[in-house]
Amino acid sequence: MFYDRNGNAVAYTEDNEHIYMFNGNPVAYFYNDKVYGFNGIHLGWFGNGWIRDLNGKCVLFNSKASGSGPIKPVKSIKPIKSVKSIKPVKGVKQVSRVRSVDSLSWSHLTGKDFLLQGI
Fold first, then answer.
1. How much is the pLDDT for 71?
2. Structural domain boundaries in the chain
3. Alpha carbons 114 and 3: distance in angstroms, whole number
4. Measured between alpha carbons, how far is 47 from 54 in angstroms, rounded to an integer?
5. Which among 23, 24, 26, 50 is positioned nearest to 37, based on CA atoms?
6. Which one-letter DSSP state was computed for residue 28?
7. Contact 14, 63 (CB under 8 A)
8. Statement: the pTM of the whole predicted model exceeds 0.90
9. What are phi and psi of 90, to 5 degrees?
10. Each residue of 78-110: pLDDT tens digit?
11. How many CB atoms lie within 10 A of CB 15?
């Protein structure tokens, strides 16, 4: 389960590889420590329970988030999951950027907007 800066449950993974929105749409996946959209765009990084944007700012976190990052909000109740849609074919991965230094602040992107860049 991934939560945003307001503590709202935004997305989840059941296989630790593919990220789904609660409406069942697959939006992104993990490749090593990187987060890619199914369209091939390098969205950011994942580490220590934090999903970070390309500038190193936090976008989403899970219950295992630790280390440097902003203060985590109180988590809300998770929504009901819809039936998952079929995963699209993964686009050719964009060359990843050099990783930015991890920030202690939240990204200007909402968790939803961040993930929707991947479709």
1. 94
2. 1-119
3. 12
4. 13
5. 26
6. E
7. no
8. yes
9. -70, 130
10. 899 999 999 999 999 999 999 999 999 999 999
11. 9
Q: What residues contact residue 23 under an 8 Å CB cut-off, 6+ apart? A: 82
Which residue do the tokens 């860049």 mark? 117
Work out the end-to-end distance of the chain between its first and last CA atoms, rounded to an integer number of angstroms.
19
Distance CA 57, CA 101 (A): 9
Q: Tell me, what DSSP letter sits at residue 106?
A: B
The continuous run of DSSP H or E covering 114 comes out as helix 111-116
Dihedral angle sign, alpha carbons of residues 31, 37, 42, 43:
negative
Structural tokens at position 28 = 């992104």
Tokens of 65: 């988030």
What is the rounded CA–CA span in Å between residue 50 and residue 86?
26
